[in-house]
Amino acid sequence: MDRRGLLQLGSMALAHAAVPRLPIAEWAGTRRLSTGHPPEDNPDYLLRIAPVTVELDRSHILSTIGYNGAAPGPLLRMRAGRRVRIDVVNDTDTPELVHWHGMLIPPEVDGTQEEGSPVVPPRGRRQFELTPGPAGSRWYHSHAMAMDDLHKGAYTGQFGFVYVEDGNNPGRYDQELFLALRDWEPFFTTTMDDEDDDTHHGPLPEKPATLNSDPDGLEVGSNTYSINDKALGAGDPIRVREGQRLLIHFLNASAIENRRVALAGHKMKVIALDGNPVPTPQTLDSIFVGGGERIDVVVEMNNPGVWILGSTEKAIRESGLGVIVEYAGQHRQPQWIDPPLAPWDYTIFGTANSSSLAPQKTIELIFEKMPGAVGKFNLWLVNGKPYPHEREFVLEQGTRYRLVMRNRTDDAHPMHFHRHLWELAEINGKKTAGIIKDTVVVPYFGRVMVDFTADQPGLALFHCHIQQHMDYGFKALFRYG
Q: Which CATH superfamily is domain 361-480 in?
């Protein structure tokens, strides 16, 4: 972006300064929201699925499906261990599912059809009861299949933060921000440029000796981005004062890509991954957030000016994935400084010691892609087969398992395991312990090992969090014997 473009960004920010907007507003009026339906037993929260408009900037307003009249939906604050009732009203013409990502809850309320969760019928409503937990940054989103319809599922605006509280202040902060990275207006493409995915530069332990040379099927791309509901330069800036501490909860709510972000002129101290405190916090110039992942950081505001927080990839940032951070009394043009290039390494947040819980059994999972095998689209395989895997993955309750994920494809896959938490054990041969997550990016031609205890009886879905990959075979159902 040239100097003129930056000046335009600054003027846009000032023009919008009079419009009050929080990054995501906490919404406290759930019990009193009018839906046109009678209330059912005074629910603690009410989510209404309906068409919404999102004004990314004054010249770009899009239509999608969201929650409670907005996208993202309301920030839901819950107390760990305190049971809640949630009414979901579906004012659309298609069945819907609301998944509570990162929660340890029964399959019937997890919000996935594969696990037997009931759908919310078109023009209908359904009430769910769940006990939130564990504490930390979680989120909720549609888990409906989309296939070749880019107006369904995670391509829509159906997503929002859940913060499960336990009374602790994780960062002794002055401001708390919830920032969702988002892409909009998806389209099919034969080319995918992923310049901010640095997993391409790591070890390649799973790269096949002979690569499949068949042409790829269509993938999903985007040229429109935002943080929460505003593109870079639109809406209010994040206003700070020198000496403040910011606690930022990042979420990659993209259905399409992993993302790297930075706050120009500042460093970010990573204190939690997927809402779970890390054993060894690290201060970094940028962070890498896979689809579905959350990263909590603390930032010391010690460099007065007007800065850009956003994607480290220039084209993505200038297409909207950013927000202006403005110190009090500063009115200069927004600045961006490229952070130093550094590979993303989960293991630095763990400990060098082995986990105190040794795995008792190992499950091998090999990921492969069959280019163009489903008409115009790719087919994704786990252990040589697309979903379903009939009784292939059967768990014994109480047993400690190691999953060895071998990625033999040219994509970095954010893998998510429902209703369980896993501990990272090894990334491309580098061992670690103590890092607890529910989603992990398995690098390009890479290998990841995670351990978990089978302590959540019932069906549990395992899948890539890229919507199109999941829709076209990249998932498996774990069940208890």
A: Cupredoxins -  blue copper proteins (2.60.40.420)
CA atoms of 45 and 31, how far apart (whole Å): 6
Pairing between β-strand 294-300 and β-strand 245-252 as defined by DSSP bridges? antiparallel
Give the dihedral of Cα atoms 67, 68, 74, 80; nearest 10 deg: -80
| Cβ atoms within 10 Å of 59's Cβ, excluding its own | 8
- φ/ψ of 473, rounded to 5, equals 105, -15
| C-alpha atoms less than 13 angstroms from C-alpha of 138 in its C-beta half-sphere | 26
CATH topology agreement for domains 175-186+222-344 and 361-480: yes
Kindly state which CATH superfamily the domain 175-186+222-344 is placed in. Answer: Cupredoxins -  blue copper proteins (2.60.40.420)
So what's the pLDDT on residue 191? 79
Q: In whole angstroms, give the CA distance from residue 365 to residue 285.
A: 33
Instruction: Note the CATH architecture for domain 33-165.
Output: Sandwich (2.60)
- Work out the number of other CB atoms within 10 angstroms of the CB of residue 436: 21
10-residue mean pLDDT profile of the chain (481 residues): values are 37 32 32 38 93 97 98 97 97 98 98 97 97 98 98 98 86 92 96 60 89 93 98 97 98 97 98 97 98 98 98 97 97 96 95 86 98 96 94 96 97 97 97 97 96 98 98 97 92
Instruction: Mark 226-253 as b/e (b = at least 16 C-beta within 10 Å).
Output: bbbbbbbbbbbbbebeeebbbbbbbbbb
Measured distance CA(341)–CA(312) in Å, rounded: 10
Secondary structure tally for the chain: helices H, strands E: 4, 33
Q: Are 70 and 160 in contact (CB under 8 A)?
A: no
State the CB neighbour count (10 A cutoff) for residue 106.
18
d(CA 240, CA 304): 9
8 A C-beta contact, residue 141 and residue 98: yes
Q: pTM to 2 decimals?
A: 0.91
Separation CA 11–CA 333 (nearest Å): 8
Give buried/exposed letters for 163-177 (b at 16+ CB in 10 A, else e).
Answer: bbeeeeebbeeebbb
Look at residue 238 and give its three-state secondary structure.
strand
Alpha-carbon distance of 385 to 466, in angstroms, equals 18
DSSP letter for each residue of 41-82: S--SEEEEEEEEEEEEETTEEEEEEEETTBSS--BEEEETT-
